[in-house]
Design goal:
Blueprint lengths: L2 E3 L9 H11 L7 E7 L2 E7 L14 E2 L5 H13 L9 H5 L7 H4 L3 H5 L12 H5 L13 H9 L15 H15 L3 H10 L7 E2 L28 H4 L2 E2 L1 H10 L8 H4 L1 H11 L3 E3 L5 E3 L4 E3 L6 E7 L4 E7 L4 E7 L9 H11 L2
Helix pairs in contact: 2-9, 2-13, 7-8
Amino acid sequence: MTDTTAVRVDTPGSPATARLLSEAAGAIDAPDLVLAVSRNGVRTVHTGGSGEPGPVPRELLGYELGSASKPYAGLLLARLVAQGRVRYADRAADLLAPGLPVHPAVRRITLRHLLTHTSGLPGLPADFYPQAVPRWSTDPYGGYPADRVVRAFLRARPRRRPGTRWHYSNFAVSVLGHTLAAATGTPWEVLLHQQVLAPLRLDATRLRPGPEGAEAVGHRRDGTPVPALDTGGFTAAGAVRATPLDLLTFLEAHLEDRPGGPGLRDPTLGAALADVSRPLLRRGLRHAHTHTLTWFHHPSPYGPVLFHAGATLGQQAFLGFRPDTGLAVAATATRRVHRADTFVATAYGLLTETP
């Protein structure tokens, strides 16, 4: 069952965009699917899926973002830097455990290294896997709490010098979250709400499951429902949940420079939004891949695109925006990713191939 609606009734969405989203949805198999587009603030939202819709419209359900949570962590760090509370070059170990002896490579890891996946840390701590494998398909993270993440960092032995190689790491971004909480004396959940969610008016974005019936239910590939994700001590790397409409609001904030936009209401927020959108590093063969502090950064026929995808045990999310044309794309689906999955490719196509 599908539906395509213009969410802002004062500025109806484009019929052409509605048709485009409907066609794109046909390529994705999931019990619940939302494709949402904003063009200079005018929104068009397509909802559908193979499952029966519930009493709450799909675009108003909270979806697990998984790794698409990282742009929220990046914006938080950038704002704290803009406020002068921390610096990108601050060393994480000095903030987490001042004076504690650590490996020299760990001592050199900065906040920037943690966020940009250049810390030299592995994707996950080595001792994460023994406790996770027995429950890999149900709850791999819940048994690894925050204090264990911090201890794993402080006793780590990075194989590479920080800043020399890009290697995607949920471990590193999780350490960043705990480091910022220690540096500010504020729990991560409270800090994110104060610095990002409340200023951007993201009232339907949270780090924990909402009331029963308010959250989308993830599914395995065979359609079996899975429980809500517990990220354990890896909150900063993947715990954000949001409605597709809130996702558009988050993306639109990165595009706003008009009077009343969040950047103009608060200079530190404006500076942070600009900072996370600026190309910062290159990696890969011939340095072909560009990244900002927190977004993947690719060229397109219509200008650069910035994006991030994420997946959990039973859900997927995609966030992206095109600064030159005011286009933002948010997509969510309630089926676990698989090898032949078309979700990310379809959402990415909407961002890069749409005039």
